[in-house]
Amino acid sequence: MATDSRRKVDTARGAKTGRSPWKEQARSYFDHHRKVSRDSARRLWKTPVGTGMTWTVMGVALALPVALLLLLTSLQGVSAGWESSARVTAYLQLEVPLEDARALVDEIRTDSRISDIELVDREQALAEFRANSGLEDALDYLEENPLPHTLLITPDERSRSATGVEALVTFVRGLEGVERVQVDLGWLQRLNAMTDLLARAVWALAILLAAAVILVIGNTVRLAIESRRDEILVAKLVGGTDAFVRRPFLYTGAWYGLGGGVVAWILLQLSLWWLSGPIERLAGLYRSDFALVGLGLDGVLALIIVAMLLGWLGAWVAVKRHLDDIEPGDIAGG
Amino acid sequence: MIEFRQVTKRYDSDHTALAQVNFSLNRGELAFLTGHSGAGKSTLLKLIMVMERPSAGEVVVGGQLLNRLPRRQIPYIRRHIGVVFQNHQLLFDRTVFDNVAMPLEVMGASPRDIGRRVRAALDKVGLLNKEKMNPMQLSGGEQQRVGIARAVVNKPPVLLADEPTGNLDPELSADIMNLFTRFSQVGVTVLIATHDIGLVNEMDRRTLALDHGRLIGGGSSPLQGAPGGVSGH
């Protein structure tokens, strides 16, 4: 905290009057921090409804962007998985015989950009199609196999970028006997574009909500400052430094943040639990292993620390704006 | 201990609260500050506590010139000045002990130190047995004495009092004055603002008399023979 360094100056000066040694000064400094933090927590505890409401507001405001970020991370995981399994499919001309196709496979295999190549011959393809499509009867009407030999090419890891795949496609297309090359990266690019867009939107939302959290805490702390006006006046009168007067309110903000972070985490866990069933079913329908990833321990800690920092920052804003206004100038009447 | 040199305080262009005030108080001196309301008593006290800054002239407390003291240094000056208010400014959300402990807490004293010194201060004002009570449960005179205990708990070299006997009956007032006298005997410079002329006469002490912002009596220090106050009436 920024106040810490200033406080050190404090205690050093305090030593002028109290002749306690340095160690004792440091201890009483930490004692004071512990006392103030405990006192601030107790004050929040005394008004459970108001505190709970502030926590909930903060929790909702924090849970929303974090949930979206989690969703985003999960989506990016999906697209990353697909990217690595990107395959180029080359359909040969119908009249190419199987031997020629095998020769072609051997030729392509020598290219360094290819990690794996598989030949699906026409008969095999027809059998698979017959088995999977449920169009057996219709196929029987056909006089000959309409399917060509097919090459399934897996690019080498280094060539899995968009340009790499494109170069590979051009190369394969130029080979003799290749009728058509297909690589279905379009949807992947669209998904990537969408997640990029979503990421920006989520970050914008996160920033807005963080600002909202700061304002909410700022306002709550402003009320706390008003309600402790007398105490602030007396503290200033008897020689309390700004850091001393601010400290309880900064702790109050941090405690609000802690509670808000915990509420956000609970909300996230609840919605994750609530959504996990339907998401599994949906992912199952798409044959995807997509799953919403929850917050790990690191994530929870980060969430709570960020929440506390936001609370502290909100308190700081309020303190900066309102504490300086409370000056004991009008206290001495007459 | 306290010295005013040609101090003028103007609030607006036309309202002059203090005009060219000169005086100095020595260590262990007890003096009264009198004058009708609006004569500038509060302004003078506020200048000593750095709640206000002079428009002209110099205010020196404990050898330190307060005029251009940076804002963040003000708390350290206030730690050397105990103040007693007419309305005592006690906090009713904590015990007598915690009220008196505030100046020590602000300084970062250790809990052991705080306990010892708070009890010593409460003992001096005769309220040792009420340390755990809420100030609200005390009588007016007792509350005032708690305020005095708080003002002296960190043994400040300067003690200011603003109408300390304002709401009290004569007997209690005499009690309080006795306390102040005792403090001055151990070297504390005490300045008491009051318009209780009877009390002032009874005590027969140096009296700084203000009238419309001008010092009309008691300006020169009896010990130092400092330049006399403005004598023009």
Automatic annotation (TrEMBL), chain A:
Q: Describe its partners and assembly state.
A: Forms a membrane-associated complex with FtsE.
**Which protein are we looking at?**
Cell division protein FtsX
Query: Transmembrane stretches, by residue range?
Result: 52-72, 197-218, 254-275, 295-319
Q: What are the residue boundaries of the FtsX extracellular domain, all occurrences included? A: 87-181
What Pfam families does the entry give? FtsX, FtsX_ECD
Q: Name one GO cellular component term.
A: plasma membrane
- Biased amino acid composition, Basic and acidic residues: 1-13
Q: Which organism is it from?
A: Marinobacter pelagius
Q: Which Gene3D superfamilies match?
A: 3.30.70.3040
Q: Tell me the lineage of the source organism.
A: Bacteria, Pseudomonadati, Pseudomonadota, Gammaproteobacteria, Pseudomonadales
**Homology family:** Belongs to the ABC-4 integral membrane protein family. FtsX subfamily.
Q: Name one GO biological process term.
A: cell division
Sorted alphabetically, which InterPro entries does this protein's record hold?
A: ABC3_permease_C, FtsX, FtsX_ECD, FtsX_proteobact-type
This chain's function reads: Part of the ABC transporter FtsEX involved in cellular division.
The record's annotation in PANTHER family points to: CELL DIVISION PROTEIN FTSX (PTHR47755:SF1)
Q: How does it sit in the membrane?
A: Multi-pass membrane protein
From TrEMBL, chain B:
Q: Does the keyword Nucleotide-binding apply?
A: yes
Membrane topology note = Peripheral membrane protein
Q: Where is the composition biased (Gly residues)?
A: 215-233
Q: Report the subcellular localization.
A: Cell inner membrane; Cell membrane
Q: Which Pfam families match?
A: ABC_tran (PF00005)
Please list the GO terms describing molecular function: ATP binding; ATP hydrolysis activity; transmembrane transporter activity
The record, for PROSITE patterns, names: ABC_TRANSPORTER_1, ABC_TRANSPORTER_2
Which UniProt key words apply to this protein? ATP-binding, Cell cycle, Cell division, Cell membrane, Membrane, Nucleotide-binding
Q: Name one GO biological process term.
A: cell division
One GO location term (cellular component):
plasma membrane
Per the record, the major location class is: membrane
All copies of the ABC transporter domain together span 2-233
Q: Where is this region: Disordered?
A: 214-233
- What is the annotated signal peptide range for this record? none
* NCBIfam families for the chain: FtsE
What family is reported?
Belongs to the ABC transporter superfamily.
Q: What does it do?
A: Part of the ABC transporter FtsEX involved in cellular division. Important for assembly or stability of the septal ring.
Could you give the subunit structure recorded for this chain? Homodimer. Forms a membrane-associated complex with FtsX.
- Please state what the protein is called: Cell division ATP-binding protein FtsE
